[in-house]
Amino acid sequence: MDAINKQGSSRTAIDPVVTEIVRNGLIAATEEMKTNLMRTAYNMIIYEALDFTVGLFDAEGNTVSIGLGLPMFIRGMSETVKAKIAHFKGDIDPGDILLTNDAYITGSHLNHMTFTVPIFHDGDLVGFSCCMAHWPDVGGTLSGSTTDIYSEGLQMPIVKIYRKGVINEELVSIIKTNVRLADRAMGDFRAQIAAVKTGEKRFLEMLRKYGRDDVLGAIDAIMDQSERIARERVAAMPDGVYEAESFMDDDGVSVGVRVPIRVKVEIRGDRMSVDLSEVSKQVGGFYNSGATAGMSCCQVAFKCLTSALDMPINEGQFRALDIILPAGSVVSAVKPAAMRMWMTYPMTVVDTIFKAVAPAMPEQVAAGHHADLVVGRVNGRKASDNSFYIYLGGLIGGGWGAKYNSDGMNATIAMNDGDTHNGPSEQVEAKYPLLVERYCLRPDSGGAGKFRGGLGTEQVMQAINQINFSSQMDRVVCKPWGVFGGLSGFGNSVAIHRGGATEETLFPNGKAINQVLKSGDAYILRSGGGGGYGSPLERDIEGLERDVRCGYISPEQAETSYGVVFKADGSIDIKATDKRRAEMKKAGLPIDEPIAPTPVFKTNTVYEQPQRNEIPEKLTEEERMVFAMNCRCCS
Q1: Is the peptide bond before 616 cis (omega within 30 degrees of 0)?
Q2: Cβ neighbours of residue 64 under 8 Å, at least 6 residues apart?
Q3: Strand order, beta sheet including 522-526
Q4: What is d(CA 172, CA 160) in angstroms, rounded to the nearest whole number?
Q5: Claim: this prediction has a pTM higher than 0.85
Q6: Residues forming beta bridges with residue 65, ordered by sequence position
Q7: What is the tens place of the pLDDT at every residue in 347-357?
Q8: Helix, strand, coil percentages in the chain from 3-state DSSP, rounded to 5
Q9: According to the 3-state scheme, what is the secondary structure of 472-484?
């Protein structure tokens, strides 16, 4: 696949009033699909975290409107619909529902079940309604480490799960046999069916109300207008070739071996080309993603630069973009590459595209962000009834990079997941044997700069009963970078505190695999901060005073990174600060440290509760909660 491009349509005499009605009708339809999925899904990852994407597509599978969801599915859904069209070669009938979780088609992992309904009007195929959602379990190993797709769960090729309105019970039986929590899986199955049928219903209503030719013509007009806007904005960018490089820590198997991410962006007239030929070859660990994820990297960056807020998201917005993406890289992997943590590397690819074009458009990009979902995978059995559970925790949000005129955002979910939310602490504690001891911002984690990087977060989760825990993080060592003199933010990290221990157990490369936590132990997730923008010696004094007062930065960081001199009463001595800043600037300070030292997290917490190892095993729930509340953050 050397390039992706489609010329605009040639329809004329389109009614602008109908076009605007259709534009907003498409957005409303995909939003209703989202709402119905959230209201009927069984698993928190869907109805609370919103780990899903829905969309409407034309008869060729081109994107008409996407209700994000996951930005990294901006391409994956369309390519999945197109793969289903090609697979059945016209053998698609009213009442069919098409299903797959093929990781090399969707570009993601096997947990993403993707349902598609063909939309027929007067016997003609006019479009598709599609829904991708994350199932917490699709079988496969519970171990955090995988090296091929076969260990990651059930692989469902492209099939008709419904054929002419009749469910295929044999295929349903195969799914139920291969998942651990069949009842919950089937609940999400039905919720996704409801979502795609909602899209079909609303699309057909528009066709009947306004006429098929007018609606389809309006869709073409929307795409053509989106294309014109994108081309105008690309044409306003400086022509040139822009390149950048970054690194991932490792692939989870070859520990400490960095994985290069190299991109080249070329702007010529009203077209942009993104070349990912020099991105690392697919790796032996679990961080690969399929080609549609690589395409999505380019499209997400392109949309941010050209039409970030323009809705609906549609095919026309990307006609001015060419993508060069050879097969076999970490973002165009081929079978049998492991894909479990597919979402991690693409986020840094997007950031690296921004890094490449930063010199040409400094007011349109941000510094690097924490670029990891910071996920904790937990499973075990509940003490009350011995029932098995799986909890995908984390998603705690982290720091985003600063921009030319503002600090980065604090505690915000990483690029891949966009609209995804964290799991509410109350929900987590009600459903799982876990206690949220602490969930807070990480002081000093944002990269210093004229505009400071956003702050990461820290979450401490205590096990009420024995649990199995794994976490696979990256960008622990290779920290989020600053731009134009801004400093790097903190990297991500994971640790475990054993009840009674005085120090944490650290995982220098961010991979804590198959850890068993007993009652009273805790796992600790820390997300990185965003990079800074501009020299920290140029940050305004008022902003620094506010940051110190709010605890966003410590007095020590204010002194060493920002050149601040404090008076005895804690206020800033402006005259002395100006002098120190001049001296630091002359000496080439502060010095950035884009690569984290080992260990990656210098703990500032010493635990002095050795008696917590002595928690009796047989306690009432009330007594156990009393012990639990005497936690690390309350000592």
Answers
A1: no
A2: 26, 55, 56, 57, 58, 127, 219, 312, 314, 315
A3: 434-441, 457-463, 522-526, 493-497, 505-506
A4: 11
A5: yes
A6: 56
A7: 999 999 999 99
A8: 35, 20, 45
A9: ECCCCCECCCCEC
